[in-house]
Amino acid sequence: MDYKVVNIKEKLVVGSSIVTSNQENKIGECWSEFINGGIYQSIPNKKDSKAIGLYYDYKSDMTDIYNFMCCVEVEKKNSVGLKEVVIPQSNYAKFTIKGNMITDVIKVWQKIWEMDLDRKYSYDFEVYHNDSEDINNQTIDIYISIN
Prior knowledge:
Layout: E1 4-8, E2 11-20, H1 27-36, H2 39-42, E3 51-56, E4 66-73, E5 83-87, E6 90-99, H3 103-114, E7 123-128, E8 138-145
């Protein structure tokens, strides 16, 4: 699977966070609460309309627990009572897909898990461009932190 190595500048993100694992997988519930519960709409100072799924604080690797955060990048700190995380500047393997924002993202993650990437397991994230009304025709970038 093709990817390119990019250096991403530091990002300040705000949203709601859970602890989960690939076995337990509460990510869908987190997204539902974030979008349908009005959290996305309530965040001021959004940098753009993109949504971010952030994986961080890995206990070890993809087989163990980690934190997942539904969030948006913001221009400055907010005082809305939500979690704030700084995604550090780093090198990332960037995968870009156009397709279904659920099933195609899962397929790409399964391929990433099989790849021999020199992963940091620090901050990995998905950027949903929200560039279409069609759930099956979305642009999604997946960034994997690498050494």
